[in-house]
Amino acid sequence: MSSPEDPCYRLLTDYANGFMVSQVVFAACELGVFDVLAEAPGPLAVAAVAAGVGASSHAMERLLDACVSLKLLQVEMRGGEAFYGNTEMSRIYLSRVSPTSQCNMLLYMAKTTYHCWGRLAQAVREGKNQYLQTFGVPADELFSAIYRSEGERVQFMQALRELWSVDGRSVLTAFDLSLFPLVCDLGGGAGALAEQCLCLYPGCHVTVFDLPEVVRTAKEHVSVPEEEHISFQEGDFFKDRLPEADLYILARILHDWADGRCSQLLERVYHSCKPGGGILVIESLLDEDRRGPLLTQLYSLNMLVQTEGQERTPSHYRALLSSAGFRDFQFKKTGLIYDAILARK
Ligand SMILES: C[S@@+](CC[C@H](N)C(=O)[O-])C[C@H]1O[C@@H](n2cnc3c(N)ncnc32)[C@H](O)[C@@H]1O
């Protein structure tokens, strides 16, 4: 029977209001609340936080109190006044000075992803992304559309870097990659995964291959690894000759593309790969029956609103890889967001 105590009604209320929680995190990040608190010698009163970020005091109080309930901040009362400080979560992931900060990813989600999700129903109706309708930019060329401006490209590249500072080790140690001294990270962005690869497998050399404008932006605006065992090569992986390698890494690449484009890319990788070499696909894997994990299902909807691709099951990837010629397919679920697949030529 329907009542306010009905667990179904409570769950529905949580779902309906979930976007407000995301917005609290995004706004606190955008305003620099966690940074002001990280720089302060101790907990700060509302007025000091508001002054530090240039915001209204009475509005800031509501934001800070919501952050406390979300465990993003802690509060202590002194003489009847509230003093706020970062929690462990915000110190590690939300303050910009932290090496594992996820701020750029949150800001990218706030400025880009969130707007695309506003047209989810229409994307499902039409079966395609909503870039043109959301931003007024034609989506003919996926990646020129994804980066509406140089600023957005920098933010997206920094955002992509951030995840590997937390999740990189788990995907790169899912298999022993020490068998592959020459590695090519296709669509490797600013080289964050390459850097992790070198830490874990010090004998290897990694070539990071990405679009010319992305490599240039990475070198000019994003901190790229300054390592003699990492080199950058500009090119289009659908058209240009691929660097020679024993192992090709495709991290968060195939999920951007429809099956036909994936097959085209995988066939090109197969032809460039040395015999006995391998391909490491890093993606968030759907369960075989597609009933979960929920986060991967949501990411697949995200691919619908933002790209031409989707998240896939292990057997879907196996079919794509084996029709390109790869054999010895293995996959490992890491238990984290991203999983790993290894196949051999
Ligand atoms: C979703 S990002 C993944 C980046 C990186 N592999 C990671 O996991 O952080 C996709 C990457 O593919 C690159 N890319 C897209 N189309 C490409 C193309 N035709 N040739 C080379 N790189 C491309 C993009 O510039 C971007 O860096």
From TrEMBL:
The keyword Transmembrane does not apply. PROSITE patterns: SAM_OMT_II. Its EC number is 2.1.1.4. Pathway: Aromatic compound metabolism; melatonin biosynthesis; melatonin from serotonin: step 1/2. GO terms for biological process: lipid metabolic process; melatonin biosynthetic process; methylation. Pfam families: Dimerisation (PF08100), Methyltransf_2 (PF00891). Gene3D superfamilies: Vaccinia Virus protein VP39, Winged helix-like DNA-binding domain superfamily/Winged helix DNA-binding domain. The active site is at H255 (proton acceptor). Keywords: Lipid metabolism, Melatonin biosynthesis, Methyltransferase, S-adenosyl-L-methionine, Transferase. One of its GO terms (molecular function) is acetylserotonin O-methyltransferase activity. Residues 117-327 form the O-methyltransferase C-terminal domain. Residues 14-95 form the O-methyltransferase dimerisation domain. Catalyzes the transfer of a methyl group onto N-acetylserotonin, producing melatonin (N-acetyl-5-methoxytryptamine). Homodimer. This is Acetylserotonin O-methyltransferase. The lineage of its organism: Eukaryota, Metazoa, Chordata, Craniata, Vertebrata.
